[in-house]
Design goal:
Length: about 210
């Protein structure tokens, strides 16, 4: 399977940006997609995907698929034997991302319109990996419930990137170094965080 670096290189960001913004593809910064959404900063995407440790053949949920760029990179990481489902609350972005994935022949990936009252896509789970590209204020229990037994989730939580695993029925949350800004995760009826998590700190960070 490709490394994260190879999968990102094989998925040029310019092809996932609106026509007028393609000149910004090489800049390590978020790019506006309209509707209050952004295509995430490449260095942040790389950090998140390295933390996510995706394996060939896995089932992956991409929450906040936006432009479809992360969905496409994930599709290359899981390969044709895997599957990636992207969910996004902005309908226009769903259509654009679906067109781009089709254009790039990534049949193992699909995107659908999310219902913000139902985080993720529980009907198609559980998932080996869940990537969340919008900032949660609290650990989203609805997404934790969609993880497979040995699954792993990466999300921005209250300013930090964290990994989440479930051990003995409880979520174990570990922060990565750095502080990050993301667009907010839209949650209509959040559940309370169910597990302890701690803050770390560090020099790295980014905006998405
Ligand atoms: C940083 S942006 C898009 C990043 C995307 N992965 C990309 O590479 O273009 C995060 C996205 O999360 C979406 N979003 C926010 N809350 C959501 C929710 N509850 N379910 C699905 N998508 C959500 C926003 O509409 C936004 O498009």
């Amino acid at each position: 399977m490709p490394s994260v670096e190879e999968a990102m290189r094989d998925t040029p960001r310019a092809g996932y940006l609106p026509e007028g913004a393609r000149g910004l593809a090489q800049i390590d910064a978020p790019v506006e997609l309209g509707h209050g959404s952004t295509c995430s900063q490449p260095s942040t995407v790389r950090t998140m995907l390295e933390l996510l440790d995706v394996r060939e053949g896995q089932s992956v949920l991409d929450v906040g698929s936006g432009s479809g760029w992360t969905t496409a990179i994930l599709a290359r990481l899981v390969g044709p034997a895997g599957r990636v489902l992207g969910v996004e609350v902005v309908e226009d972005l769903v259509g654009q991302a679906a067109d781009r994935l089709r254009r790039d022949g990534l049949g193992q990936a699909s995107v659908r319109l999310a219902d913000p009252a139902v985080l993720g896509a529980p009907d198609a789970g559980p998932y080996d990996r869940i990537l969340v590209s919008a900032m949660a204020r609290e650990l989203p229990g609805q997404l934790v419930d969609q993880l497979a037994g040995d699954g792993l989730m990466v999300l921005p939580l209250d300013g930090q990137l964290v990994t989440v695993r479930v051990e003995d029925g409880r979520p174990v949350v570990e922060p990565a170094p750095g502080w990050y800004r993301f667009v907010p995760l839209r949650v209509r009826s959040p559940r309370r965080a169910r597990g302890p998590w701690s803050r770390g700190g560090g020099p790295r960070g980014g905006a998405s």
